[in-house]
Task: structure prediction
Amino acid sequence: MSRVDSSRTLRIAGVGLILVVVAAFGVTGALYARAFSNPAEITLETSRAGLVMDPGGKVKMRGVEIGRIGEVRTVGDSVEIVLEIDRDELDGIPADVVAEIRATTIFGAKYVELVPPAVTGAGSLADGAVIRASGVTTEINTVFDGLDRVLSGIDIAKLNGTLTVLATTLSGRGDDIAAIAQKADAYLTKLEPLLPQLRKDLHQVARFARLAVEVSPALLAILRNATVTAGTIADEEQALDRLLVDLSLLGGRASELLGENGDALATLLDSARPTAATLRAYSSELPCFLKGLDETRKIMADVIGGTDASLRALVSVRSELSHYTVPKDLPGLPEDRGPDCHGLPRLKNSQVPIPERGTAQ
Result:
């Protein structure tokens, strides 16, 4: 091989080596930039993202990296973070997962931690799903901002005077403060065993408060009605006074009446007891009797004149009937016979009594 051919071969080999090295760097950069991956995109909505939240940050679950942060954008008053999750990891992520934005250190870059619930049955997370952030790690700038607002509202001169008075007051009283602290510790030690009972009492107070809220409308209605009643009593005060005076007089007269006639009333009531017992035993016959009278009235209406002012009757005088004697002709009541309507209010023809007939005079 000639020297020219050898030199040409070396140049070609050198160019090829350079191309291979450039291609290796390019492939390495593409792999680092995940140019050949096809991740699933999950949208994370949060009120704020905090500082040092840049694309390329890590997405973890249970401490294992499963993706990266793709894009951070502002939408209205909230922030949307696009999470690029490896598709092979989606099956192991529950659909009801929540996210927390955390930081490695107080000044470090932030990452997203997916926190699955203790019990889940919602299936796996799908590509394109939207999840919410449960919290964002407190940052040093947030602390400084709050501290700055507090310090801006403080009057330095008044603060200095307050601290001076406080120092003067506490100067030389270390033993007293220590004694007070010891007594407070003793009281708290005695109180600690009572905390469970105190907790129960507070629960009962809460239940009573809820009950009071529920019955308060009815209680207010009662108070309103009581107000109306009290107003009526106030308006009719004079009439009420007269009523009470009359009742007092009536009570005095009734007391005198009952005092004078108490024995007679007791004797009367005792005498009426057998009659009342009989009437009570046969009280069920009274409705039958009254209905029977009404049926008789309807039948006898034409006989006694109906609605006319007249009376039609057939009268006869009997002379052959025996005289009424006592106790032979006294009415009797068979024993062991209870109340009975005896066919009333409407009797059958066979039940209608036939009067005795004598010789007309």
